[in-house]
C-alpha cells in the first residue's frame, strides 16, 4: 500500500521560513509528478508547486520567487522550501504524487496534510 507522509509544518512569523517534506513509502514501480497543494479555510484547494520526474518545475504566481520545490528520487521525497512567508500563506499543505504501482497502472496519491500558520 502506497502512502505519502508529510512533515515540517508549524507556526512561523511573517518573513520566516519553513521546509516541508513528503516521502512516499510502500511498493510501487515509479513516481512521476510530485507536488504541493494548499487549502485555506473557506477556500478551494490550490496547486502551489509541482516538479516533474525530469526536474522541471512550475509554481503558482503567488509563491514565485519565495518557494522552491525539489525532489530526491533516491529517497522518494519531495521538499518545499518556503521563504519570506506571509500571513496569506497560512493553510493546510498537502503533498501529491502521481505513482505507478505497476508499469502501466498509476493514480494520484495524497498526504494527510500539514498545517502551516504564518502569524506574529
| Backbone structural class | mainly beta
The average pLDDT value, as a whole number, equals 97
Number of strands: 11
Task: Please give the count of helices.
Answer: 0
Order of helices and strands: EEEEEEEEEEE
Q: Report the biggest beta sheet as strand number plus sense, adding barrel if it closes.
A: 7 strands, mixed
What is the 3D shape? elongated
Helix content percent band: under 10%
Beta-strand share of residues:
over 45%
Quick summary:
This protein is mainly β.
Task: Describe what this molecule looks like in 3D.
By secondary structure, this protein is mainly beta. It has strands at residues 3-7, 10-12, 18-25, 30-39, 46-51, 57-59, 67-72, 77-82, 91-102, 105-110, 114-118. Strands 2, 4, 5, 6, 9, 10 and 11 form a seven-stranded mixed beta sheet that branches. Strands 1-3-8-7 form a four-stranded antiparallel beta sheet, with no helix packed on it. The chain is elongated, with a radius of gyration of 14 Å. It starts with a strand and ends with a strand. The mean pLDDT is 97.
What's the layout of helices and strands?
Elements lengths: L2 E5 L2 E3 L5 E8 L4 E10 L6 E6 L5 E3 L7 E6 L4 E6 L8 E12 L2 E6 L3 E5 L2
Parallel strand pairs: 2-11
Antiparallel strand pairs: 1-3, 3-8, 4-5, 4-9, 5-6, 7-8, 9-10, 9-11
List keywords for this structure.
about 120 residues, mainly beta, seven-stranded mixed beta sheet, about 60% strand
Amino acid at each position: 500500500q502506497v502512502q505519502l507522509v508529510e512533515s515540517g509544518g508549524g507556526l512561523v512569523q511573517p518573513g520566516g521560513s519553513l521546509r516541508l517534506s513528503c516521502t512516499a513509502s510502500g511498493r510501487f514501480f515509479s513516481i512521476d509528478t510530485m507536488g504541493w497543494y494548499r487549502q485555506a479555510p473557506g477556500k478551494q484547494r490550490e496547486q502551489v508547486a509541482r516538479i516533474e520526474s525530469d526536474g522541471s518545475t512550475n509554481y503558482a504566481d503567488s509563491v514565485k520567487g519565495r518557494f522552491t520545490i525539489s525532489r530526491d528520487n533516491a529517497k522518494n521525497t519531495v521538499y518545499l522550501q518556503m521563504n519570506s512567508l506571509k500571513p496569506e500563506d497560512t493553510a493546510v499543505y498537502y503533498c501529491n504524487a502521481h505513482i505507478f504501482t505497476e508499469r502501466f497502472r498509476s493514480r494520484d496519491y495524497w498526504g494527510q496534510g500539514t498545517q502551516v500558520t504564518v502569524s506574529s
